[in-house]
């Protein structure tokens, strides 16, 4: 029986993304999961890649990688601000090598399953940990490392016994192979119980700090020709968190009435921050003083940025505008936070990344 591409993709997303509907909790729980998805061949659907990977902190996406861009990128402002360049560089290397690993292993599995190479197959890996917080005490509650083939569980790691458990007969050779290298199972167990929990706590700390601080908007004002005699003056505020903002375009210090102004409303950026744009048509010859007035709770004083007439450009989309224009995202699942701060964990980061590289080149299905 053949499933359609869409059904398969949905099946796997459903299995992995809708997995953990939160139960009713006594203790506060937090989770950090990484999900890797590889397809056996390219699919001609927009936004669907042969290989994707993402990190999820409490079910909110914090990073992303796909086989087209081949770059691990932050999905929250605080990830971008708090984790240094080398975290993203090593992360990119690690994801690239995992991409190769999946490429190799999906072939091995397809052969073992006697599946035709012309069909689409999907291999997924989900791993991560959960902690429980009781008062100020944090304790490890769950560690998962599991592989699924075509949306069905294939093999998973039993953290108590420190060994792999098969879900289908075809996974037996894999289990034998992987269990025969005890140090790798120790590494997996150690990663889930310790490293993963450390990262989870670190990420939560960063996110909390940023949430408290908030992130102020960058404010830009620019104009472009809209007709022979008119200009479109635009005020853009971006990168702010949380998403409430008060914004107006002012002429001689007085806010223009709403009906004269066109507004995009508040829209999310990819990194979890927000943006908003407002424009107004003005006469070209007009010499009035315009400014953009933005007030946000992260700033004591409002940001008042004046429009400088000489910055008007003749092109319809100017370099200055496109430089400030970050395309907003449509899904609103972001709860990213502000700005400021940094942390250095390079040696630990490097250590973990190099271990995970070794790990993945030995563990072949
Ligand atoms: C307003 O925003 C601009 C651009 O982000 C920045 O350069 C300027 O310092 C800000 N002004 C205030 C008062 O915060
Ligand atoms: C622009 O010019 C037109 C006619 O020249 C005038 O009626 C209109 O009020 C002006 N608009 C603004 C915003 O000054």
From TrEMBL:
First and last residue of the signal peptide: 1-27
Keyword Zinc recorded: no
Pfam families: C1-set, MHC_I
Annotated segments matching region Disordered: 308-343
GO biological process terms on file: immune response
Keywords carried by this UniProt record: Glycoprotein, Immunoglobulin domain, Signal
Annotated GO CC locations: external side of plasma membrane; extracellular space
Domain Ig-like, chain residue ranges per copy: 217-305
Amino acid composition bias (Basic and acidic residues), ranges on this chain: 329-342
Family of the protein in this entry: Belongs to the MHC class I family.
Name of the protein in its database record: Ig-like domain-containing protein
Species of the source: Cyprinus carpio carpio
